[in-house]
Predict the 3D structure of the following.
Amino acid sequence: MKRLLGEKEIQRGVRRLARKISRDFEGREVLLVGILKGAFIFMADLARMLAVPVKMDFVGLASYGAGTKSAGEIRLTKDLETSLKGKDVLVVEDVIDTGLTMQYLFRRLKARRPRSLKSVALLDKPSRRRVRFQADYVGFTIENHFVVGYGLDCNEEYRNLPGIYVIE
Ligand code: IMP
Ligand code: MG
């Protein structure tokens, strides 16, 4: 495994995102919706750096079968516990790859009439897109690599690595 992003670099990126989001949402309360499981570490760091009041909820989505190959199909494995109606919602995702997961989730969440619906992704792999989806906030744009660490897994392994690594 080759290191792509170190701890310090990730923290700088998350802080950059937090500053921008705090400015954009000034005077409002944000409902962070984390996508389990990959986004849990990113969301924990981001939430603590935000200067606006925050509430949190999670959805469980499974898009990948085993290993690094997409199953091509998305399932909701855990729904929100909070109503989105009239709220300023920010979906927190670890990485946007084909865009299918976010497209699916945005359709479902829009139907619940939030006041606003935006997204932040720590990582973005635009070269892998199969549907049009652009996150409102992106930490790092990366090449077509399969990466692990900082919440991201390969067969549930490596989520706890503090840095982000490329699997060869
Ligand atoms: P998409 O639906 O193809 O955009 O895939 C998004 C989901 O696939 C993410 O939430 C991740 O769980 C998973 N994924 C995509 N790329 C990677 C990667 O490089 N490492 C680990 N998980 C990934
Ligand atoms: Mg995920």
